């Protein structure tokens, strides 16, 4: 069996009043930064409830599309359960599969036996630092009538995800290098932003 590809990640959140300071520090220590507005749809298997009843957590499928780039394609990705905290206490390390979809990702997911569970929009900034991508965003909910994103409330918490930009294969780029890279960002943001491991 081939080895899994993994994502290594840390995440955190902060209040809107801290945005300028955090934005400045991240911009200063990143190779590039740009605005982001993405649509994300989460799908679950049509028999997800049966799987839960049987004691198995269903594998969710996520579709993401960047709205600010007219040429952007849908990306489909899926995560498996994070590795144990005993194995990787410092960061979330989880098997990760991803593929680009030309055309209608929603029909493609449906053809795979998945049904739509939820949808959100994320608006904020994306930073690149080495082999990491750092997303900083507020979630926007879709208008029930139009499906279009509604601006986030001014007090909505900002979320930050620091993660590997592409799946890490253990042979090519040892996981330890990627873990060190996300821990560097954790150290860099110390005192401004608490980045931590998450198990969801």
Automatic annotation (TrEMBL):
The keyword Transcription applies. InterPro entries: Mediator_Med18. Keywords: Activator, Nucleus, Transcription, Transcription regulation. GO terms for molecular function: transcription coregulator activity. GO terms for cellular component: core mediator complex; mediator complex. One of its GO terms (biological process) is termination of RNA polymerase II transcription. It holds the Pfam family Med18. Transmembrane segments: none annotated. It is found in: Nucleus. Its main location: nucleus. It comes from the Eukaryota. Component of the Mediator complex, a coactivator involved in the regulated transcription of nearly all RNA polymerase II-dependent genes. Mediator functions as a bridge to convey information from gene-specific regulatory proteins to the basal RNA polymerase II transcription machinery. Mediator is recruited to promoters by direct interactions with regulatory proteins and serves as a scaffold for the assembly of a functional preinitiation complex with RNA polymerase II and the general transcription factors. Component of the Mediator complex. Belongs to the Mediator complex subunit 18 family. This is Mediator of RNA polymerase II transcription subunit 18. It comes from Lentinus tigrinus ALCF2SS1-6. The gene is MED18.
